[in-house]
Amino acid sequence: MPRISPRAAVNAASKAAYEIPQPIPTPSTPISAMINQRAIPQEASEELAAFRSKAPKPKPEPPTPSPRQRHRQPPPSSASQSTSPPPIDFTSFIPREKFEISTSLPRSYFLGHHNAALTRMRQALSNVGLILEVRDFRVPISSWNPLLEQSLSSTSAGVPRSRIIVYTKRDLAPPGQMSPHGHPLPGTQPPSNVIRNLKNFHQPPKVNNVKSMIFLGMGVHSTSLQELLKSIKDVAREIDSLTGLRVMVVGMPNAGKSTLLNRLRSHSLHLGKAAKTGAQPGVTRKLGTPVRILAGEDSNDPDTYGLGEGVFIVDTPGVFMPYVSEPEAMLKLALVGCVKDGIVPSVTVADYLLYRLNQVRSTTYIERFGMRAPTNDVHQFLRAAAKRTGKLRRGGDESLEHAADWVIQQWRRGNLGRLLLDEVTLKKLDEAMQLAREPSLSMNQARKREKLARKERNDAKRAGVTGEVA
Ligand SMILES: Nc1nc2c(ncn2[C@@H]2O[C@H](COP(=O)(O)OP(=O)(O)OP(=O)(O)O)[C@@H](O)[C@H]2O)c(=O)[nH]1
Ligand SMILES: [Mg+2]
């Protein structure tokens, strides 16, 4: 029997299948018989079977469906049930209730250029009529910097300066905190509740200089950009200055300030990028020159009335707070990329991510890393990630760190499940407001306070233990 190549076998088989005249079905022809009548020449069929058995199986890399899609998918047929992996079972898995945080965790990322920027911002304030305060929607409370609030919120005469709070990265928060079966998870908040709480909390008279609150994300949220431009116009008209309005965009590092400036300019004036952006904190190092985002008054265009010479935005470097009093907030800020990578060890950040993913019973990492079950063990999690990406090297630690960096980047891009990291209740917001009103501590003062608190905690613990023994 002459040998033919596998490719020729495939061609012959498919050609034969299409060239064989199809019998005209009669009412008595069974459907299965009609389907099987596409005969393949035996010679080609044997070669094809041999080729198929030798060919490496394609790696299954199914796109990870969202919990809602998964919910809608039809149940697998009994044939596929025997080959597909068993469904991920979270019922027998107990996620960690608490994340143990080392006392040596860094609690600050307040750099020299942050302090210098703050001084320059204060000096430039006399021309500024509106502050655009940018916060990351995934950490709406933790990315609230009281230092900015205290330094910039009022004029030298003590008059509150108008503020608009913009929550960015809405697209990276979950559409709803749901279990894989589509039920809300106990203890989680749907983003709509978070938005409602934030809006209610910032209503005047509680916070009397917040003009509006906007929730922005990449892609589909351009109506919010329109809404933001309208709010800015309203402030400009209120001030009604011949020279127009100067806006300062401020916020924590990497919150999306420069991106916001570029988006406003592009949306309103169809002009290209004016500010440099990047996925790491510290991209903007100096106060920018004012960039126009709204055209000046034009007698032929009623939409520009009251805008004077137009509206201009000044970009600023991200400013971190001198000290993060809540250790978990530092982990959240490191996870979202507000703190430079490496300040908090990446394995610790990845461990915190794993803890949070397990709390909401996210199955994405299990599916993506080809794991059989959820885990609370960060090394197991990272080894599975490293195997998946081919980054596993002999010797352990180094490759685990690489894997941790990779896992964190994947989550930041929205590829490993989306999380809202702060609990946004009115109580929590009240506490954050109290904190914002306290005079901000210097790094040394804050350290001293923390040391004292730790000593008191340890003393109390020791006294408790001694008491029990006695
Ligand atoms: N997915 C998503 N990414 C965003 C959004 N806004 C900003 N980004 C990204 O976040 C990263 C940081 O954006 P920047 O605008 O450079 O942040 P910044 O606040 O100016 O940062 P610094 O200048 O370092 O303080 C960039 O990679 C942006 O593409 C958003 O709404 N959604
Ligand atoms: Mg910037």
> Would you identify the regions where 5 or more consecutive residues have pLDDT less than 50?
6-82
Helical content class: 40-55%
Write down the overall mean pLDDT: 78
What would CATH call the class of one domain?
Answer: Alpha Beta
| Relative strand content | 5-15%
Give the helix/strand class. Answer: alpha/beta
What can be said about the biggest beta sheet?
Answer: 6 strands, mixed
Within the CATH hierarchy, at the fold level, what is the topology of one domain? Rossmann fold
Radius of gyration: 29 Å
**Strand ordering within the main sheet:** 3-2-1-4-6-5
By CATH's scheme, which homologous superfamily of one domain applies? P-loop containing nucleotide triphosphate hydrolases
CATH architecture of one domain: 3-Layer(aba) Sandwich
Ions, cofactors, ligands: which are bound?
A: guanosine-5'-triphosphate, magnesium ion
Kindly report how far apart the N and C termini lie.
Answer: 94 Å
The helix count comes to: 17
Shape: globular
Number of strands: 6
GO cellular component, one term: mitochondrion
Pfam families: MMR_HSR1 (PF01926)
Protein name: Mitochondrial GTPase 1
InterPro entries: GTP-bd, GTP-bd_ortho_bundle_sf, P-loop_NTPase
